[in-house]
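Appendix C reproduces, verbatim, an entry submitted by the partner laboratory led by Prof. M.T., so that reviewers can inspect both the input and the predicted structure.
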Amino acid sequence: MVRLGGEGPSNNFEDRTGQSGGFGFGGGGGGNMLGCLLPMVMSRFGIVGVLILLLGYCALTQLTGGGGGGILPTGPSTTGAPSSGQSRLDPNMRDFLTRGLGSTEETWTEIFAKSNARYQPPKMVAYTGGTQTACGMGQAAMGPFYCPNDTTIYIDPEFFNELSRKFQAPGDFAALYVIAHEVGHHVQNLEGTLDEAQRAQQSLGKAEGNRVQVGVELQADCYAGVWAANARDAQGNILEAGDVEEGMRAAEAIGDDMLQRQSQGVVVPESFTHGSSAQRMQALQTGLKTGDPAQCRFNR
């Protein structure tokens, strides 16, 4: 079990689990409408929906553009404020999310400081079902995602139960890998990688654009490993026996080949948007072994 508790809980957290986000879209934008809603299935986190945007970020490409894959683009934000309501967030889950985010803040602040840079942490929003974002309407069927327009990570906490039950990837480090991957996208945003990838995709076809997106996702996996390798408390590294294995099981379970084989019985490599199980495991392992973000190269 990962030792969380030495770090303070993050203050960059918002609980929207008791709010109703609605399902409207802002006007305009053309191809900037949310494509991730199209493949939703019976389960709120149905495997097809998770395949489309599992551990993703909603900026890389337009649905009508090169990359495909149902990514929520940086279109106009939705209109109307969410209605208020009583929180549905379990106190233990809140503590887990805020302390996990707090650990990434401490670790990346130290990493950035080594290069005389200042780390600006993201915000995290916990929600239920759907919520409005600066990138458009977000829904739980998309899985956790990062919106660069408001530098915010969006998570429906029920996803972690789905990760454990449906994908057979239980454990606190498996869940923290999800959080750290999204924080990895925020690091990419600070570094300019997301803008670079989006520019590259504009001149590419779908298959080539998908390869760019895979490069982005694998780097975020590697950054998740970098966080885990560097996260410390008074006793040393916060990882304990079995934690790395939990992370590897999660990375394997959410590889594009694994998900495609389960959902459609056939693997189509040119449609990969996040990388194969082997690629995701290797990327996470690189970060864990080296602890060096410079080893997490963005290959496009």
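The mean pLDDT is 80. Additional entries are available on request from the coordinating office.
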